Amino acid sequence: MNEISIGAVGAAAIAGLVSLLGLIIGKEQKVSEFRQAWIDELRKCLVAYLVNINAICDALRLKNAGKSIDDTALLANYKSLNEASHGITLRVNATEVPAKALRMSMSEFEILAENNASLTPEKIRDVEMRFIDASKELLKFEWNRVKRGEKTFVWTKRIVTLMIVAMLVILAYAWATDEKAEGGTRGDGLGFQLVQLERFPFMLIVPT
Asked: Could you tell me how far CA 157 lies from the centroid of its own chain?
């Protein structure tokens, strides 16, 4: 009866553990999906930032050359640039190294934008290369995080692995102990039969 109770409790515990692990894995998978969508939006902001910086630079260069430009389109570029800038700032973690490098290059762009005369293709190109390199590092960093999984998922996977290893060790030990016990029992039984045979020879005719 005790063995049945222990087995029932063990089965219920295993079922509960499996359900809990399923909930954790499902939740972390959903978080990873949201993070991937977040990366896609960040990539769009990075592209929009560069596109509008170059568009503003080209427009100002034409204006300095004496050509007429569409001020409405220029204002639209500034608006899109601000939207992309805020979108990047709100999405990145300023304490992480890749984000710091990106924010530094954005600060360089902002310094150039304070004076329209500084927005030359040469100066923009230098900052642009640093911006692109920092963007690649940040996107790679975030992609590796998605591929690796969230922290809770990683730790859950480690715990499950340890539990499986522990269960295999316990099963192997139990099997070895059972085999040893059965071997001892078989030896005792054989000795008993031999004694019986010596004391009662007529039992030889009884099939076993």
From this structure: 11
- SS3 annotation, the chain: CHHHHHHHHHHHHHHHHHHHHHHHHHHHHHHHHHHHHHHHHHHHHHHHHHHHHHHHHHHHHHHHCCCCCCHHHHHHHHHHHHHHHHHHHHHCCCCCHHHHHHHHHHHHHHHHHCCHHHCCHHHHHHHHHHHHHHHHHHHHHHHHHHHHCCHHHHHHHHHHHHHHHHHHHHHHHHHHHHHHHHHHHHHHHHHHHHHHHHHCHHHHHCCC
Nearest residue to 153 (alpha-carbon basis) of 39, 30, 18: 30
| pLDDT value for 57 | 85
What ranges do the domains of the chain cover?
13-149
For the chain, 208 residues long, the average pLDDT of each consecutive 10-residue run is: 54 66 69 82 93 87 78 87 92 88 90 76 85 91 75 67 72 70 52 43 43
Please give the C-alpha separations between residue 166 and each of 130, 161, 175, 195, in angstroms, as whole numbers.
50, 9, 14, 44
Q: What is the pLDDT of residue 65?
A: 75
Structure confidence at residue 102 (pLDDT) = 92
Q: Which two tokens stand for residue 36?
A: 């991937």
